[in-house]
Structure formats: C-alpha cells, structure tokens
C-alpha cells in the first residue's frame, strides 16, 4: 500500500487525464484508472463520427497508458444515469426557454458521484481528474476550488457545484501547470501523439454541435409543436415568424432568418406564448439577476452585499458585483451592466481566484 494513498483517476484517453494519472503514479500514489462511458454516439443520430471521450479509441488509449505503467484500469458504463439526468435536463431546459450547461450538471451530479461510489468500492482514498483548477483546505476547514495557474485553460467555472464531501477527496494535479508544460510532460512520458490529439469543446452528446437537430430527433413532433411563433420587439410588436422558441438562445444574432435593416439579437424567450423578443445589442445589458440552486464552497454563508466577480458563462471574464443571499437564491447587482444574461446558464462568484460558490441563473432584471 502506498504511503500517499490510493487514488481513482478518471481517464478519458486524452492528454490531460493521462498526464494526471502518470503524474500521480510517479508521485507515489497507488493509481487505479477508470474510463466512464457516458454516451453512445450511435443513439444521437448525428452526422459526424465519434470524437472526444466516449469512443473506442479513447478507451484503448487510456487502457494502454495504464498497462504501460503497471496500474489497473476499468471501464464504467454510466449511460443510463447520464441520459436520465443530464440529457433529459438538457431537453427540458430548452423546452422551458432556458439555455442549459450540461457539462456543469454532468460534473457535479453524475461523474463525481459515480467516481466517489466506485472509489469507495475499490477502497480508494481519493479521486482525481484532469481539470485545470486547484483545491485546497481553507483556514475555516472548508475545501475551496480556485483558478488554475493557466487562466486560458481554467475550468473552475464548471466545478462550482461540487459539494464539500466530494472536494475533500478530490485531487486536481494540473492546477499549478500551464498547458504547454502538460504537453511537454506527455512527450517526456513517451506519448507525443497525445499532444497532437484533437480536443473537443462540443457537448459530448451533440457530436455535430447541432443542438437544434438533436432536440428535433429527441422530441417527437417538436417542430410541428413550436413552429409559427412570432418574433416581437420589446414593445410587443410583431416583427415576423420564427421556427420555434427552443431553437434560439439569448444573445443570438446569426441564423435568425429575418431582415430588419439592422443587426438584431435575441433578448428574451417566452415558451408560454412561443415568442422570441429581438432587440439591439444594448438591450442585452442588465444591471442585476437572480441566481437559484446555490452551492456555496468557500464559506458556509454569504455576507449580504459582499463584493465578488461574477461570471455568467464559461468564457466570460467576469463582472464586479455585489451579491445578496435571499431565501435560498442570490441577487447579483453588477457594477457595470452585464451582457447576455441567459436563464439556465451557470453564474459563478469569485473572491480573487477562489470560487465562493455558484448557481443557475433564474432570470435577469432589466433596470
């Protein structure tokens, strides 16, 4: 038994998770690799071949790395849980006129819980992934997620939903490194092909990146049910007809198929009357929003009015704000207007590089 303990490493077959496993192995941990099959591409009906983490080549790459370095490797089939929770939520959110973030839901409710359950079954002390973020124990004894050294690869945003029991047993070895260093490590370990391997940023169960086509295939008769709704302006005037409210997202400009003599953007989606509101770019700017389904990380409670940088999407740089806890939700008031607040997306609150917590955007409030 290793003095450092036994760790279950989620291995997708890509460069980050492979280097994670080999790094921990070199550091003296007893490593067990596991690859999770979350989705069967054949069932998605997409037009492109399997890419990313759920294909046979990736499984084989992960297993080969484990064989090369003498530690065990397993494949865990969690397709039923994934489909029943992540995919169904994805569909339901679009049908409710919201824009979901399935990667957050998958991380916090499916992958980490599945990892912890299997870790317990295999008597592993820890679980580890190839995410670019850091975890440390704060002076108040709570475990805190913070940004990676490489801010261009930082994934702390998608980890806001991890609860303390998960964080206390999670190791994220890549947080102190830059992507260029990880690529060099892959070369040094003898896997130069990993450094060239394509990294997919698409939703894993929408392989052709066409979520509209996915919804049509997933929901029988959807096109007929939602066709013929109206584009309207903020005063309710009808501007034309759209193809159905689930096929639009807040902030969308391209693909609207309507000519109004100027650029217009989707500013609101109303599933109740199948209307999509269009406006100018400045109509996307809002002073505040309400966030629900809160998970706090750094502190047990938030001080009303405390200052935080709030990110409203993965690639958002964040906006300085004051946050106010209110009956299980958080009201966010921005110092400068935030653009493109989309209900259903994640809002994550930062104190410097530390994640205070996060939640799901319930609604914006035009002021």
- The main sheet orders its strands as 12-15-14-13-16-17
CATH topology of the largest domain: Rossmann fold
Order of helices and strands: EHEHEHHEEEHEHHHHEEEEEEEEEE
Estimate the global geometry from the Cα principal axes: globular
Architecture per CATH nomenclature, i.e. the level-2 architecture of the largest domain: 3-Layer(aba) Sandwich
Sketch the major β-sheet.
6 strands, antiparallel, barrel
How many domains is the backbone divided into? 3
Radius of gyration: 22 Å
* Overall pLDDT metric: 90
Explain this structure to me?
The longest helix has 20 residues. Helix content is 26%, strand content 29%. It contains 9 helices and 17 strands. About 2% of the residues have low confidence. The radius of gyration is 22 Å and the shape is globular. The protein has 367 residues and is α/β, with parallel strands linked by helices. A 6-stranded antiparallel beta barrel has the order 12-15-14-13-16-17. Strand 10 and strand 11 form a beta hairpin. The protein has 3 domains: 149 residues, 3-Layer(aba) Sandwich (Rossmann fold); 54 residues, SH3 type barrels, CATH 2.30.30; 83 residues, Translation factors (Elongation Factor Tu (Ef-tu), domain 3, Beta Barrel).
């Amino acid at each position: 038994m290793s003095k450092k303990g036994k760790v279950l490493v989620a291995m997708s077959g890509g460069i980050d998770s492979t280097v994670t496993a080999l790094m921990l192995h070199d550091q003296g941990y007893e490593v067990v690799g596991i690859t999770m099959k979350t989705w069967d591409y054949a069932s998605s009906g997409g037009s492109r071949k399997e890419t990313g983490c759920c294909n046979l080549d990736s499984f084989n790459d992960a297993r080969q790395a484990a064989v090369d370095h003498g530690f065990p490797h397993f494949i865990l089939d969690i397709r039923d849980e994934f489909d029943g929770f992540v995919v169904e939520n994805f569909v339901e959110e679009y049908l409710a006129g919201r824009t979901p973030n399935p990667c957050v839901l998958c991380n916090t409710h499916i992958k980490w819980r599945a990892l912890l359950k299997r870790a317990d079954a295999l008597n592993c002390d820890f679980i580890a992934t190839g995410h670019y973020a850091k975890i440390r124990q704060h002076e108040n004894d709570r475990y805190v997620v913070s940004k990676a050294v490489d801010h261009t690869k930082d994934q702390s945003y998608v980890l806001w939903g991890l609860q303390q029991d998960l964080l206390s047993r999670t190791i994220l070895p890549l947080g102190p490194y830059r992507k260029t260093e990880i690529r060099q490590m892959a070369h040094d370990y003898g896997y130069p092909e990993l450094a060239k391997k394509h990294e997919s940023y698409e939703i894993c169960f929408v392989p052709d990146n066409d979520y509209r086509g996915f919804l049509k295939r997933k929901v029988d008769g959807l096109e007929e049910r939602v066709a013929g709704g109206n584009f309207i302006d903020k005063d309710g005037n009808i501007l034309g007809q759209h193809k159905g409210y689930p096929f639009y997202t807040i902030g969308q400009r391209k693909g609207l198929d309507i000519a109004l003599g100027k650029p217009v953007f989707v500013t609101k989606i109303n599933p109740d009357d199948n209307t999509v509101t269009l406006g100018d770019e400045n109509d996307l700017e809002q002073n505040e929003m309400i966030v629900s389904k809160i998970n706090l990380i750094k502190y047990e409670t938030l001080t009303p009015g405390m200052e935080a940088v709030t990110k409203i999407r993965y690639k958002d740089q964040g906006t300085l704000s004051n946050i106010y806890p209110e009956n299980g939700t958080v009201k966010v008031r921005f110092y400068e207007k935030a653009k493109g607040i989309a209900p259903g997306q994640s809002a994550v609150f930062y104190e410097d590089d530390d994640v205070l917590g996060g939640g799901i955007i319930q609604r914006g409030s035009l002021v």
